[in-house]
Amino acid sequence: MRLQFIVILFLFVGSCGLKQPSLEVVSLTVEGRENFPGIEEKQPLLSWEIRSSSRATEQTAYQVLVSSSGEKLADNQADLWDSGKINTDSSIHVAYKGVALESYQRCYWKVRVWTNHGDSVWSAVHHWQMAMLHPEDWKAQWIGLDTFSAGDRPYDQDTRLAARYLRKEATIEKEIQAATAYISGLGLYECYINGEKVGNDVLTPTLTDYDKRVPYNAYDVTDRLKKGANAIGVILGNGRFFGMRDFHGNPNPMTGSRQVTYGFPRLLLQIRVEYRDGSVEYIHSDGSWKVTDQGPIRANNEYDGEEYDATLEFAEWDTPGFDDRTWKAVDLMDAPKGVLYSQPNENIKIKETLVPKEVYATNRGTYMVDMGQNMVGWLKINLKGNAGDTIKLVFAERMKNRDTLYTENLRYARATDTYVMKGEGTEQWHPIFTYHGFRYVEVFGLSTPPTVADFEGQVVYDDVQTIGDFTSSNETLNQIFKNAYWTIRSNYRGIPTDCPQRDERVAWLGDRIMSSYGESFIFDNSRLYAKWMDDIQVAQNENGSLPDVVPAYWIVHNDNVTYPSAYIIIPEMLRKQFADEATYRKHYPGMKKWMNYMWDTYSTDDLVLKDVYGDWCVAPEEGTDVIWTNDPKRTTDGGLVAASYYYYCLTLMKNFASLQGMDEDAAYFDTRAQRVRSAFNKRFFHSDSLYYGNNTTTANLLPLTFGMVEAENRDAVFNRILEKTAEYGNHIHTGIMGAMWYMRGLSDHGRPDLAYTVATQKTYPSWGYMIENGATTIWELWNGNTGHPLMNSWNHQMLLGDLLIWYYEYLAGIKSDPGQTGFKGVVMHPIFPEGLEYVNASYRSIYGMIKSHWRKENQTLRWQITIPPNATARVSLPANTEKAIKEGGVPLGEVPEIRLLDKDDRQVWVEIGSGDYDFVVADVKWGE
Which segments constitute the Alpha-L-rhamnosidase concanavalin-like domain (predicted)? Predict the structure, then answer.
């Protein structure tokens, strides 16, 4: 997917009897947002979704019209682009090819679709707006407060800095036609116009390395401004711009990492006002603005929390006429080093609210709030008190006992919010420049007992769409899925963070190598990960080296193979799941540069063995506080892990080159891959015992999965994996590098039953063990209930491995056809494990909704399937003859929309087009 701009236009095309198909535009989104006014791509990609009540609906042609006004487009005057009728089934990522687009330009468009049923329909009219396409379009200056005040501690280890409040009044003398605000407030900002907040985002903008890239957001503020006096107010928070820790150039003594800071917060703001007479005026940040740091937000820090003193509030500071004579003139600030860009990925929003499960008094006179769910966000309070009463909220994921929070795993993070009451009746408050990972909150300073109605948990994460759902007859599987859902969204912050609670919260490349793939079945993470690939690109050194953490808020640069391989593996996920052909093309030069750098710098005898982390976090002995095992029988040679991943990246690079017609590059990567494969087998394979390395499951699984094992040895190598699985009581026993392939590896080689056993275990180590010990999210450690607090997050996605992929592709049977992308073709070949009675899953692909709901009814399988228009599916039905199969009560051979493809003594393969199908298969021999 080309992620600078994507417009999704939903078309409902249906037929009923002799009536023409109905058409309805449900939503228009730009990078997931309707009518997004910040498009930088000069050839934006347009996509639309077709819905039809007719089976086997395929688009046969389209026509796109784009105009400079809605009125012109209503008359079919396409002064910007008329594609003409294009005979193709392409309905996603259609590139605009019209008149060159300019800054701020509004583009109105619609599309006509023809289908194979002989019908055609027009969509409704929608629009997008271009961003500022040239640096000279910016008329604003960076402003802020380039100093600190009493109470601030900018140079202590635990830094502390009050929020900055900035304001400007402007008089508008003409009638307003439209107005757009472009804002970059670093680290975080909230903008208000005439007393109302602009947008409903929180913790904006999303994170990046400000020395390389500086995001700005665009908002339509036509309804916020008015003729006459106007006031613009902005609050600047610290975010990750002003450092949360200052070790004065030394490593963090607990983690060993170095941390970065960029300076004091600063603002760049430009409002473009278009008047009805055709003229344009700008309101922008410059030296005429006023600023103070003496407002109610006395400190804000993502690790430590927010301190708010309501007695210092200044009423109506963001409205015209406010007396700001005591405020200072702003300082003109240096621009950040990074390049300004219109943020393409979703901002963070309040996505859900929770009522506490319980509120009770402790034996210390405090009150404990139990949300019933480990969550990320903050607590909104609704309390009464006296002026000057200080309410302190301390957040934690766990309890030591009923009256005591467990905070040791937070490390240096204080995770505490403070609110000083003004004493004016019921006061409502929540922080705006911090967030917490928590289930429990201890509340200090209350003069009267609270109730659950006095608190609200506000869940915040990137405004990505939930596109997948999964339930089954096994409650352990269902709760694991729920825990995974909460964990994934807990760690979407514009970057995929590792954890949301302790003094870390950074994006480790290795954590997401395969997790991103599983996540993509639940959330539309396409823009998030494409943006993160851009972050990785600018973090690359000139020589091609890549860091382990991006953005580099922690400076960790070990030059190992596995973690930076995310830069190659994740674009393949985006290509496969979302038909994103742009990301791997855009980053191909950087990928190639890294591959060559690692080879030139570290290869020995045709192998790149550079490794630091190995098979990270193999489960230690149950009941210990050890973070990872030191058992040599479970510890895989890091060189083997590195060499196998390097080989896998070579195979991906060969394919990326081939897709771009780069035959010479493809041959180059292929030749190198064959050399690596030969050297790998020579070094690591034991031909006498038929295993790799020291015979750990990961040592055998990686070469088996990556296609490095000679054909005659594959069964024997897989048997070594089975032996190890049995040795560990049919529990998962790999670290994260092995877990990324383990569930699929068992299933692909004929043991899906064993994979099901592993997935549903409730004893240590297992995902079910976490649940049995009270987990509502996924732990960082298999022994998270006993592990050492130095590295023991209770909200960490890395141990999921390939479990969610296995849920969808193997249990539900929803898999993108490897010969196509983006689920244009679907492969539906589920497993039916003994003991699992039904699965009900859905996935909203870029073509529309896919559903798979199968249920065992004694010796009969009932399987209900939905495929979206403009897509097809190959379906495997567990029968040895088509005569055992009916669809909608009709024998299979009599259903015209179903085509028989193949059959053997176990399965019948058919091809279906779009629509709803209800298959019944008789006399199924389960388990064969």
Answer: 362-461
Question: Per-residue pLDDT for 505 more than 50?
Answer: yes
Instruction: Check residue 21 and give its pLDDT.
Output: 45
Max distance between CA atoms of the chain, in angstroms, equals: 88
Whether the per-residue pLDDT at 203 is higher than 90: the answer is yes
> 624-637: buried (b, 16+ CB within 10 Å) or exposed (e) per residue?
eebbbbeeeebbbb
DSSP state letters, 203-269: SBS----TTTEEEEEEEE-TTT--SEEEEEEEEEE-TTTS-SB--TTSPPTTT--EE----S-EEEE
> For residue 418, what is the enclosing H or E element?
strand 416-420
How do strand 106-115 and strand 120-122 relate by DSSP bridges? antiparallel
pLDDT digits (tens, 9 = 90+) for 882-911: 999 999 999 999 999 999 999 998 999 999
Distance of CA 13 to the CA centre of its chain: 31
Q: For residue 734, give the DSSP letter.
A: -
User: pLDDT category, 252, cuts 50, 70, 90?
Assistant: confident
909 sits in which H/E element: strand 908-912
Q: Residue type at 193?
A: I
Whole-angstrom distance, CA of residue 593 vs CA of residue 583? 16
> What per-residue confidence (pLDDT) applies to 30?
40
Mean pLDDT on 46-60:
90
What are the backbone angles phi and psi of residue 341, rounded to the nearest 5°? Answer: -150, 150
Residue 422 tokens, joined:
């003004």
Contacts with 480 (C-beta within 8 Å, 6 or more apart), sequence order: 759, 767, 768, 771, 803
DSSP, collapsed to helix, strand or coil, labels residue 531 as helix
List, in order of start, the domains of the chain with CATH numbers.
6-129 (2.60.40.10), 138-345 (2.60.120.260), 349-462 (2.60.120.260), 468-812 (1.50.10.10), 815-921 (2.60.420.10)
Q: Given the structure tokens 């088996």, which residue do they identify?
A: 704
Are 290 and 327 a contacting pair, CB within 8 Å? yes
The pLDDT of residue 31 is above 70:
no
Tell if the pTM clears 0.85, that is, is over it: yes
What is the structure's pLDDT at 898? 94
Residue 686 pairs in a beta bridge with 691
Q: Calculate the dihedral angle through the C-alpha atoms of 562, 490, 244, 203, rounding to the nearest 10 degrees.
A: 120
Whole-number average pLDDT of the chain: 93
567-593: pLDDT as tens digits: 999 999 999 999 999 999 999 999 999
- Dig out the tokens for 409 from the structure: 């795993």
Q: Which residues contact 479 (CB under 8 A, 6 or more apart)?
A: 771
* CA-to-CA separations, 80 to 38, 96, 141, in angstroms, rounded: 19, 10, 33
User: Of 89, 77, 78, 2, whose CA–CA distance to 46 is shortest?
Assistant: 2
Is the bond into 703 cis (omega within 30 degrees of 0)?
no
What are the angstrom distances between the C-alpha of 797 and each of 371, 466, 479, 497, 660?
Answer: 21, 17, 15, 9, 34
